[in-house]
């Protein structure tokens, strides 16, 4: 029913977390971003920003032609609305979940990605950039911790697409562990999501799809990931 164009990165994990929770039938279409698959014309036709994940739903709710969706947040929202799950139907609950979903898309994801780039992947160490993004991600972790001191999950009492969006970006880099001692509510939340069976199934795809996950990048992979296109 669903083709998921995927590579095991934090943004890719967001969608597999939801699909595994929903139990929807889906097929992984690997997009090897180290080989440059994201620049192929057939992928650009559904994801014009040459970023994965992207999705093609062959049984959309309107019964029409296959529906393609790009951008991880849009995919989460599309699937939640189609199935009626992991997004509240009451107006205030819905707003709360969408606030935290877009917070992740605009803040936690991009800032964590820049932190990872300048700490892990950059060819030279730039102290200003490292300090800038380390400090901002720590601030964002503090924002999450304060919120999670007030509610079980980011959107309220129930697990939602807001949590699935943020979870893969908390501790995304093995070399940059989260200071869970400073953020105990964040740790409680993270442990609860990690313990869900659907989370284990989603993350098992990592090595199935990319057996080289975690290995140093080659010069060719760096060119495709960080070069200009």
SSE blueprint and pairings:
Blueprint: E1 2-6, H1 10-22, E2 26-30, H2 41-44, E3 54-57, E4 67-70, H3 72-83, H4 91-121, H5 127-148, H6 161-166, H7 184-194, H8 197-209, H9 219-226
Parallel strand pairs: 1-2
Antiparallel strand pairs: 1-3, 3-4
Helix pairs in contact: 1-3, 1-8, 4-5, 5-7
Question: What is this entry, summarized?
Answer:
This protein has helices at about 10-20, 40-45, 70-85, 90-120, 125-150, 160-165, 185-195, 195-210, 220-225, and strands at about 1-5, 25-30, 55, 65-70. The chain is an alpha+beta fold and about 230 residues long. It starts with a strand and ends with a helix.
What does this protein look like?
The protein has 229 residues and is of the alpha+beta class. 52% of the residues lie in helices and 8% in strands. The chain has a four-stranded mixed sheet with strand order 2-1-3-4, covered by helices on one side. Helix 1 crosses helix 8, helix 4 (91-121) packs antiparallel against helix 5 and helix 5 packs across helix 7 (184-194). It is globular.
By secondary-structure content and strand pairing, the structural class works out as alpha+beta
Distance separating the two termini:
32 Å
H/I helix tally: 9
The major beta sheet can be summarized as: 4 strands, mixed
Secondary structure: number of strands: 4
Indicate the overall shape.
Answer: globular
The percent range for strand residues is: 5-15%
Oligomer: single chain
Q: Radius of gyration over alpha carbons?
A: 18 Å
Poorly predicted sequence stretches spanning 5 or more consecutive residues: none
Specify the helix fraction band. 40-55%
Q: How would you state the average pLDDT, rounded?
A: 95
Q: SSE order in H/E notation?
A: EHEHEEHHHHHHH
Strand order of the largest sheet: 2-1-3-4
